[in-house]
Amino acid sequence: MEMPFRAFVNGTLALLRYFAIFPRSHVKGASRGRLIGTFRRHNTARMADQTVDLTASSPDLSPAKARVTGTGKRKCEIEETAAEDAARSRIMAFAKHAGATIKPFVPAPCDPDSPMPDTPFEAPGILTDANRNRIMEQAQQVNHRKNTALLAELHAERVARQAAKNETSQTDADTSKATRMMTPTVTLLTYNVWFEEEVALEERMAAIGDVIVETGFPTVICFQEVTDSIWALLSSATWMRQYEACAAGGQAYYTALLYRKSAVTSAQPFSLHHYRNSVMGRGRQEVVLSFGEKTCRFATSHLESPLGWNRKMTESRQAQCKLAVEALDASGEANVIFAGDLNWQPADGALPLTDRWVDAWTELQPDNPGYTYDGKQNAMLTNSYRTRLDRVMAKLADWKLGSIEMVGQEAISGVTRTVAVKGALKETPVLPSDHFGLHFTMQPR
Q1: Exposed (0-12), middle (13-18) or buried (19+): which is 180, by Cβ within 10 Å?
Q2: What are the beta bridge partners of residue 254?
Q3: Largest alpha-carbon pair distance within the chain?
Q4: Which of 444, 285, 299 is nearest to 357 (CA)?
Q5: pLDDT category, 156, cuts 50, 70, 90?
Q6: Is 249 helix (H, G, I), strand (E, B) or coil?
Q7: CA dist., res. 162 & res. 169, Å (int)
Q8: What is the DSSP letter of 285?
Q9: pLDDT tens digit sequence for 199-208
Q10: What is the tens place of the pLDDT at every residue in 353-367?
Q11: How far is 208 from 407, CA to CA, in rounded Å?
Q12: Residue 93 in contact with residue 41, Cβ under 8 Å?
């Protein structure tokens, strides 16, 4: 009976020790050793049923439900262990789902004699909240530094581009200002376009347009003998889009004054001045144009025409020309150009020009008679009369005479007309007009 009773007592004491009812000091010697070994084996076997395998390939996402037995302190320890195992199971499941790799938790050996560290223990593969927050803060700081550097780089590039743009704009502005201030070369075309509408009108106006293009789109154009039909054709031409134009109108044929818009910095309104002594309703058109800081007044006129061989209208033309020159002098402009069909005949004498006025043709081509109406050179004409009806007169301070030449001297290809000459029909070529035009250039001093 001794051995069974002894075993009963030892088992009872071990149970009391296990549930913290009987003090440890009451269990001594070999009995204590046997009790500890027995209950270690018992505890290990029982805990195996409650442990979650972190190395499992497919951990369950739901919390592990451990079988909990016992009471008091031991029950709390088992519950804590089960909660930790469940948490680890969830972490491993999430990591596997996200493609991450986390090492299984392996508890470090615990030395009961060593003091507990001041900071929480961090197992391999498991981040504490404090360390996770610290890493996130470091990542945010790194991203902030990178973003700041990137923003600084982008800002520097933007500033550089803006500086380059400002420099280019300033250069363009300086160039534009210098261009505006620089006195340019100015060109002028004066052309009597011939009011005869029955002779290849469309072809002739197209040919005059070709002259305008070939001469480089003159700065100023002066037309005479413009009819309503002629003006309609000229106004519809493509080259006309570059010009500001004013036709005198009010007569069977009249003058028109044009300037190329892109060639001037500003322009005053066109003006028209009638000659009181004219029986044909003649007058003078004017416009003042600015080229940078310099200005020039341009005028065109078609002076009184002869009315047959017995009415030369010489006095009327002389009076009109004198009046025009005096009015242009009275304007106060330092630079003036007066161009057009003056109908000036040899019998009219010298032009009534005042001081500083010059006839551009006689100044630039003194050895050339300059017949702008030439029955010998213009094959369209059926007479042999020759004279210099068309003139360009200049009074310049900021410019000087450059060049002058006749234009429109070529016949229009493939266009002819049939006329009666001394009772017989004759086929002749067609030129743009019965007059030749004058293309004049003035250069800055």
Answers
A1: middle
A2: 226
A3: 180
A4: 299
A5: confident
A6: coil
A7: 10
A8: E
A9: 999 999 999 9
A10: 999 999 999 999 999
A11: 9
A12: no
Is the predicted pLDDT of residue 131 greater than 70, yes or no?
A: no
Q: Give Cα 61 distance to the centre of its chain.
A: 61
pLDDT for the residue 309: 79
Rounded Cα distance between 287 and 54, Å, is: 100
What is the percent of the chain where pLDDT is above 90? 57
Coarse DSSP helix, strand, coil percentages of the chain, rounded to the nearest 5 percent: 40, 20, 40
> Which residue in 143, 21, 142, 118 sits closest to 74, CA to CA?
21
Tokens linked to 390: 């068309």
Model confidence at 66, pLDDT cuts 50, 70, 90, reads: very low
Q: Which amino acid appears at position 243 of this protein?
A: Y
pLDDT above 70 covers a percentage of the chain that reads 64
Integer CA distances (angstroms), 216 to 2, 186, 293, 391, in order: 140, 11, 24, 21
* Exposure b/e, 84-119, CB count within 10 A at least 16 = b: ebbebbbbbbeeeeeeeebeebeeeeeeeeeeeeee
Tell me if 354 sits within 8 A of 384, measured CB to CB. no
